Sequence to fold (402 residues):
Amino acid sequence: MAVEPNNTLPLTGITVLDLSHIYAGPYATFMMAMAGARVIKIEPREGENLRSRGDMGGADLPFAMLNSNKQSVTLNLKTEQGKTLFREMVARADVVVENFAPGVMDRLGLGAAELQKINPRLIYGSSSGYGKTGPYRDYPAMDLVMQAMCGVVDSTGYAELPPVKAGAAVCDFGAGTHLYAAVVTALYERERTGKGRVVEVSMQDAIYSSLASNYGMLHARGESAPSRTGNKHAGLGISPYNAYKTKDGFVVLNAPNDHHFRAVLDVIGRADLKTDPRFVSRATRVANMAAVDELLESWSKNEMKHDVAKRMIEAGVPCAAVRTLKEVMNDENMHARGSLEWIDHPVMGRIVLPNSPLIFEGTPRRAIEPNVTLGASNEAVLGEWLGHSAEEVASFKAGGVI
Fold:
């Protein structure tokens, strides 16, 4: 099925060859697709890894989330005919994206240097765990491993308990976001120079700055800095900043400035404490963090979480109920903005899918088109786009190329 982009979106006219798999690369190319690019997802004949996890339960939805609005082509790059067809695509494309281990594409004879001989305007974007250089280059990398290597696991959880991973795949999606930025930056440069460029993003590099508060505390306190602070501020520099019990769950609250805390005291009916020397400034509240937390929770534990959040928000205090995934999937704000959409998926039925978080004012968001079945675009891409006859496409299939 051909996917025609909205001709007013910024990446209209750009063709992306997407060799990537799982999360990081597919998220980058998903955002490119929703920004108007034609994204051709090139998969091995058995499908990329995430697609093949569907029979284990749960992976069908992530695949659908990351591969909307893409065409699907199967291509055996270990065959000479498969490599030839890929080179034909490269000659007509603007971008190649892959997140294989470093060296894989070179061993296939399809590395960046070879492809840019075919198309000097090509932007070649890659992502890996540790990058193409350095002593960790060949280490295997997945999100869990990267969270451990990058300090995320050690920073997550409570000091007195074992470390835990972040619930979100932060390293994968952090790398995907940065990879999108690198590719689009290179496309901008190409507008001025006419030349392509090779860009790369490592998961390790992409996640480092997200631990800024933690590194700040390490710098200030040295060896005495706790590695994990639970739900408290990672730098232990704000109070209140925590998750507080309610009758039906928890709320999180962050009062970074004095006026926020004074508003908190008004909400909980303790305006009398505004002049208490323990609470008059951020510094004194941090020094008396346990007392601050006890004060708030002695009130919140008798309230309902959504009521607490509503009252705090009305008072201008950053606060939210700790919501379940089901609540988030049905979030009225995201649905009202078009950030989430209910769609009828041809395989999974009625599901919620995300649109791109990138909004281009003046242009409607591109409507979500569900991911297509494996190889559904073979004829459209190899026949209509590359110009091969129906007989040739049939021979590719018979020869194990597609």
About this structure: The radius of gyration is 25 Å. The chain has a mean pLDDT of 94.
